[in-house]
């Protein structure tokens, strides 16, 4: 029996609720700049991200829906916290989110867990700053998020 089989579908699970520390508006600085905001969708099963940044001279605007997949007819939600980003230029990207059990490390895998494309960042003690880097084969960039509200 998988961990997802033990998830109560009537309320969000503890692993998903660890994403609470992302809720709010953040300023992004470093090799990318702009703002990122997160808010829970009614019910608390999905976290919505709104992104308006510039990285390497490219404006990136879009939104992301983050949560566990529960496809039509499924009896239990998926084991991983997944997301899909929708960009204003029509692009879509899939990710897997993970916040460590101690709440100090955020990892976002591009595509699938274990992918060579990922973000890994560390929160300060009061979770108002996250410093880290996006890494992918042949590239990447450093970024710091500071919570504004």
Structure description:
The protein has 149 residues and is mainly beta. The protein has one helix at residues 14-17, and strands spanning 24-30, 32-40, 46-55, 58-68, 81-87, 92-99, 105-110, 118-123, 129-136, 139-147. A 10-stranded antiparallel barrel has the order 1-2-3-4-5-6-7-8-9-10. A hairpin with a 1-residue loop joins strand 1 (24-30) and strand 2. The chain is globular, with a radius of gyration of 15 Å. Residues 1-7 have low confidence and may be disordered.
Ranges with pLDDT <50 over ≥5 residues? 1-7
Overall pLDDT: 93
**Main sheet record:** 10 strands, antiparallel, barrel
* Order of helix and strand elements from N to C terminus: HEEEEEEEEEE
How many helices does DSSP assign? 1
- Strand arrangement within the widest β-sheet reads 1-2-3-4-5-6-7-8-9-10
What sort of overall outline do the alpha carbons produce when their principal axes are compared?
A: globular
CA-CA gap between termini: 40 Å
Q: Measured on Cα atoms, how large is the radius of gyration?
A: 15 Å
Strand content: over 45%
Helix share, percent: under 10%
Number of strands: 10
Helix/strand/pairing category: mainly beta
């Amino acid at each position: 029996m998988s961990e997802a089989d033990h998830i109560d579908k009537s309320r969000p699970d503890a692993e998903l609720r660890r994403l609470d520390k992302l809720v709010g508006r953040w300023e992004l600085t470093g090799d990318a700049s702009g703002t990122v905001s997160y808010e829970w969708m009614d019910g608390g099963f999905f976290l919505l991200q709104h992104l308006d940044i510039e990285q390497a001279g490219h404006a990136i605007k879009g939104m992301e829906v983050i949560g566990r997949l529960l496809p039509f007819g499924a009896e239990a939600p998926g084991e991983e916290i997944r997301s899909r980003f929708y960009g204003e230029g029509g692009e879509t990207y899939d990710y897997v989110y993970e916040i460590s059990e101690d709440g100090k490390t955020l990892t976002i895998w591009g595509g699938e867990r274990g992918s060579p494309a990922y973000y890994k960042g560390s929160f300060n003690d009061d979770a108002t700053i996250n410093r880290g880097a996006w890494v992918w084969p042949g590239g990447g960039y450093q970024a710091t998020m500071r919570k504004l509200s």
